[in-house]
Write a structure and sequence with these properties.
alpha+beta; Alpha-Beta Plaits; 2 domains; 5-stranded antiparallel sheet; 9 helices; about 25% strand; elongated
């Protein structure tokens, strides 16, 4: 049975571009509110678009702009959009599209692929056989300062009174420089993990408090599937070594390569 075609009254909502030997079957996943069931649209040359029919009265420019202030609706759309992209992750290569990527019809969507095919093929080549992983490094400052005190006290045991007082003074200065040192740790962690990934990206201006801890590093890494175990192992080893000093490394993923296809989506 051939895939259902969009009716002339429907626009075409695009979730992602997929390179595959045969058409994906995404129909079992729930689409964003108001959209038709997801389907594969053949774009030729082994490329497929995962799309849904989009009624203009709900997804036309005017109607869509009016609904963008409804954050509950936008959130439901985003979750469904991401779930359908995630369902295609087992394909040879996937390029996620931005939320609310809509064309007038199937023909316009195919024309976009044809016009940008060379660029899209390069992007698909770059992310083929890879997944995205997110890594966050946080510092529990209270715990880190406690560890700092313990190490200073241990170093001072058995020392003369003057030496002990000097170490207490040094401890105060060390505490004030704790965050500065933590930034250096964050740089080292990112560099170490980036060396084990195919590509990497570090979000800037992220330092702040996260549930009582200081967020030091928020990075994303494009990891070849064949290297995923090695990447995880390196992260776990680093996490264990840093934990006694109040650091926590949190891994999430694997995900489709959202942060490495910006020039295609």
């Amino acid at each position: 049975m051939s895939p259902k075609k969009a009716t002339p009254s429907s626009a075409t909502y695009v979730y992602c571009i997929v390179r595959a030997k045969r058409a994906p079957a995404p129909g079992r996943f729930q689409p964003p509110p108001g959209l038709g069931p997801p389907r594969a649209l053949d774009a030729g040359g082994g490329l497929f678009l995962i799309v849904s029919d989009a009624p203009p009265d709900e997804y036309g420019e005017e109607a869509l702009n009016a609904r963008l202030e409804d954050m509950d609706w936008v959130s439901r759309c985003a979750l469904a959009h991401e779930a359908i992209i995630e369902s295609a992750r087992s394909a040879e290569s996937v390029v996620p599209m931005k939320l609310f990527t809509i064309f007038r019809d199937d023909g316009r969507a195919r024309a976009m692929v044809e016009k940008d095919r060379r660029r899209l093929e390069r992007v698909l080549d770059r992310v083929a056989g890879c997944a995205e992983y997110g890594v966050r490094l946080t510092l529990d400052e209270r715990r880190a300062r406690k560890d700092l005190v313990a190490r200073a006290v241990k170093a001072a045991s058995g020392a003369s009174g003057a030496a002990f007082l000097q170490r207490k003074k040094n401890l105060k200065a060390a505490g004030e420089e704790l965050v500065h040192s933590a930034r250096a740790v964050a740089d080292e962690v990112f560099t170490e993990l980036a060396a084990k990934a195919g590509d990497s990206y570090r979000r800037t201006d992220v330092e702040g408090l996260v549930k009582g801890s200081r967020l030091l590093m928020d990075g994303v890494f494009l990891v070849p599937n064949r290297s995923a175990r090695r990447f995880r192992s390196a992260l776990e080893k680093t996490a264990r070594s840093l934990a006694p000093r109040g650091y926590e490394l949190v891994l999430n993923g694997p995900w489709p390569p959202y942060h490495f296809v910006a020039d295609a989506a």
